[in-house]
Design goal:
Number of helices: 2
Strand content: under 5%
Distance between the termini: 66 Å
Structural class: mainly alpha
Order of helices and strands: HH
Number of strands: 0
Amino acid sequence: MSTATIEQKLNGLVRRVEALEAKGKARPARKGKWRGAIGFAQGDPLLDEALRLGAEWRAKANREGR
């Protein structure tokens, strides 16, 4: 592969990386994104069961001195 070909490919890659970096910086970081998850499982029977099972496990572990 000639030096000119390598330089052309390298320049193309540099442009692609710069474009990707610029694209990533153009989008501001979302603050408070976690707030959208609050209450998502409210009233979900699976969550209620998971909480109940967790409480049972913790109570048993406490009784056994873990």
